[in-house]
Amino acid sequence: MKLARSALVLTAVVVCAACTEAQGTGAEAQGAGEERPGAAEKRIEERGPAAPSMDLTEASRSKKERADETGLDEEPSLRISAVGDCTIGTDLKSRWGVGSFHVEMQERGGDLAYPFSGVVGLLSQDDLTIANLETTLTTHEPREPSAGLQFRGDPAWARMLVLGSVEAVSVANNHAYDLGRVGFEDTVRAVQAQGVGVFGFGLVDRRTIKGIEVVNLGYTGGEPSSIMKDMVRSVSREKRPDNLVIVSFHWGGEGVYQPNGDQIRLGRGAIDAGADLVLGHHPHVIQGIETYRGREIVYSLGNFVFGGHSNPEDKDTIIYQATFQRKEGRVVPKESQAIPARVSSVPERNDYRPVLLDGAEKARVLEKLRGYSAALAMH
């Protein structure tokens, strides 16, 4: 686009130069339309170079700036990133325990950019990043202690999502109501106040990027019969040939590396209804990726910024990226990749700062994912 902008500036200078000289005597104005070859270029040289325009570097330009710029293309493409469970909080009973997310943030001086700092360089280069927000962000206190987990973070921590270049989050999960209706509504308000989209439990995130509408829908898993009808109806209602519909499910068994039959039926049901991409989370480990009718089902993205455990046994995760392109009025898949990562920048504990893997560790996670994906061919 630098060339396009330069051409636009050059054209403007030529036009303005011609207009200025046309304001001279009548004879000069009459001859303006019969300009000698090279005269315009000569005038530009005489006037000196145009004042330099401010040009942001690629690294500092926002996703919106790049989207607005590319939106002028005839056939735009969108790169979507997806990450798994983001618990930017801690269980109320252990929030000040050794190695907790709260303690880590305190030791980091409350640096809200810290949790995503190891991956923001990658996520900031896509067009949309989606995550599962598996916590409440509220100051609300429970009426009585719970024997189960109650995840809670400071409402100000919603800013972490923005600093991590996350634009949309699913709240359709089993911890969204840990602090009741008040906690859920506080969470939605805190996230939306930062300009981050929220979807799930009846909320829909709908946005336009580069002229393409992107719709995010979210559901909690369970028996397919209990949610299939509503899910299919919603996907069918939202889907058009020229838009992109992404469905996120919170499903499956925790610590299980293969999807169960319910996941497979729901995932394929979403594609049958018109979904372009299905994203899964909840098992807290990665599961395989299936290509079904030309669309992908990512059964489990694993954990990501996961304040739910100070030292999970399996720290492997992925950043899934898919690129879609508009062709002849339709939005179609172009390419995809799984980028191996670890939920912590150190292997011996969880410091709640995911980092990309390389070398042998990267190869190991890719081979692991290939094995899980190959097993799906049996279904």
From TrEMBL:
Positions in coiled-coil regions: none
Keyword Signal: yes
Compositional bias annotation for Basic and acidic residues: 33-48, 58-69
Every Capsule synthesis protein CapA domain range: 79-308
Pfam families for the chain: PGA_cap
Renumbered residue ranges of the record's region Disordered: 24-76
Signal peptide: 1-17
Top-level division of the source organism's lineage: Bacteria
InterPro entries in UniProt: Capsule_synth_CapA (IPR019079), CW_Biosynth-Accessory (IPR052169), Metallo-depent_PP-like (IPR029052)
Keywords assigned: Signal
SMART domains with a match to the protein in the record: PGA_cap
Keyword Signal attributed: yes
Family to which the UniProt record says this protein belongs: Belongs to the CapA family.
Protein name: Capsular polysaccharide biosynthesis protein
Organism, as annotated: Chondromyces crocatus
